Amino acid sequence: MESSEKVKGSICWDSEDSFAVGIQIRTFAGMVHSESEELVQLDTGYDGELLLPYRLYQTLALYQWEYPEEYWPVGKTVSGEIIELILAKGQVLIPRWNVALEVFIETFEGNEELLLGRSFIRKFKVLLDGPGNRVCLIGPSVMRKEDPTS
Questions:
Q1: CA-CA distance, 39 to 24, in Å (whole number)?
Q2: What is the CA radius of gyration of the chain?
Q3: What is the pTM for the complete model shown?
Q4: Is residue 95 classed exposed, middle or buried when 0-12, 13-18 and 19+ CB atoms within 10 A define those classes?
Q5: Per-residue tens of pLDDT for the chain, all 150 residues
Q6: I need a labelling partner for 107 at 20 to 30 A (CA). Which of 25, 42, 47, 134 fits?
Q7: Measuring CA to CA, which residue among 141, 142, 102, 129 is closest to residue 7?
Q8: Domains (ranges, CATH) in the chain?
Q9: Exposure on the CB side of residue 102, measured as CA atoms within 13 A
């Protein structure tokens, strides 16, 4: 599942059961959640950029970059439940492109899902290749190359 195929200006991931891309999550203190990329599902039903499991949010100490409560958005579950989302800033790394994107990170107490939502997807042209069992990101509209020494 880790193989990729480079197409001009794009990067692809094999994706058999769900459409996912390989990322890492990094705090502004430089803490990274995983030593290698993790496949994270793209979810068009989630309007934010990155939804983190609450435990991972705590482990990464993202409360250090948390917005005041008056800026926290409200989310609505599929079942109609209203949830106040905790909002912080962080970075999504796309290691295969050597790219870091500053993102809004959301979570809520008890959340166990890790998702990339529509606000993240809008930064890219995305190819969902069902018959090919892969997903490709094509040329992000806002991209900052990483300094390999950082």
A1: 9
A2: 15
A3: 0.85
A4: middle
A5: 333 444 457 899 998 888 999 999 999 999 999 999 999 999 999 999 999 999 999 999 999 999 999 999 998 888 888 999 999 999 999 999 889 999 999 999 999 999 999 999 999 999 999 899 999 998 755 454 555 444
A6: 134
A7: 129
A8: 10-145 (2.40.70.10)
A9: 5
